[in-house]
Amino acid sequence: MQKIKMTTPLVEMDGDEMTRVLWAMIKDELIHPFVELNTEYYDLGLVERERTKDKVTFDSAYATKKYGVAVKCATITPNRQRVEEYNLSEMWKSPNGTIRAILDGTVFRAPILIDSIRPAVRNWKAPITIARHAYGDVYKATEYRVPTQGKAELVFTDKDGNETFRETVYDFECPGVLQSQYNKDNSIRSFAHACFQYAIDTKQDLWFSTKDTISKQYDQTFKLIFQEIYEASYKEKFEELGIEYFYTLIDDAVARVIRSEGGFIWACKNYDGDVMSDMVSTAFGSLAMMTSVLVAPDGTTEYEAAHGTVTRHYYRYLKGETTSTNPMATIFAWSGALRKRGQLDGLGDLVDFADKLEAACLQTLNDGIMTKDLVGLVVPGTQVTSVNSLEFLKAIRERLEAALA
Ligand code: NAP
Ligand code: MG
Prior knowledge:
Low-confidence stretches: none
Distance between the termini: 8 Å
Shape: globular
Bound molecules: NADP nicotinamide-adenine-dinucleotide phosphate, magnesium ion
Largest sheet: 10 strands, mixed
Strand content: 15-25%
Number of strands: 18
């Protein structure tokens, strides 16, 4: 069989622990035999981040900006324990945070569904993708524990030093709490563009929800910016594709999401997205089946799994045990990135390969061959064979070879 050729390089970001082990296995079993892989490789493993003083993370993000598509392995975000474990000179920041900041991107999370694992919400039939605006609001709030009686005010002074706004927040007659949040039009705009772009890319409806009836300046601004950008830049394309942009209040959205069949993108403000993504992913089944895509306002895209480096499995692997770690979300990161690369470069056979790779994964699971984590989740009565990671990859490879033959 002739290997599929690539033109533009794909930015490849390697990572840590068990997912780093899976990364190499996935390439060996499912990519290299079929594709003449052309990647620009960046090792974001913690050892290399330490060696380069985290420069490698920045370089990988700039390369992503340059080429437009990246695939990323899960990486350790150092904490105090990791600083000791890896003898780090500094507690390097989360690579995902660094990359997201450089790309000004929005994260979209979507579950992979299979027939034998039913979502907790019975009527959900297709994935619900959550887009979280990961900037500002309560995550960048200034807070004060009010100790005693006194007046809290909100004051704005413009760049020339003129006080243009002053309003009493509350005249405290007793101790209490105080918080102020902010966001920026720029960031909201980038968020909106990423959401509309991704809706077009995946041909799904886009829902957006805030509490603008109560928050008449703050949330209202989000609503108006989305509306303006939709009308100006995306309305025509949405109509052409037969997809819809739909705004509603957050509480109405929650009710509609639960009653829906799924199959749309739900854009959320920062806190709503934090909470709802955990709820939606748990209701769909398993973290190991959750994909994550970072989309920049210019359409630059980075694909990864939503889960971490699966440390507990890695320690067992180091002791020589074979583990049954689920590679699905990481494989789908590869297929997503290869498909996107294929679409951008007009490589039909690469797009076709990505489709067939995903189909082979789903077929394997639907044939009852799965990693341990999924065995406990399938509907009772399903015939399953529990396999380790390598056996699972080999079962996928068999089906992929058959599909490509
Ligand atoms: P995790 O790696 O997602 O794993 C948490 C647990 O979920 C695992 O112990 C395992 O449960 C289960 N699990 C997750 N993915 C699985 C898979 N593919 N197959 C089977 N089971 C899976 O989260 P964590 O242990 O909290 O974090 C570990 C490291 O990952 C941390 O250093 C953290 O900084 C990093 N992290 C990175 C990213 C990223 O790069 N995007 C995201 C999150 C966390 P059992 O052990 O019960 O089998
Ligand atoms: Mg959360």
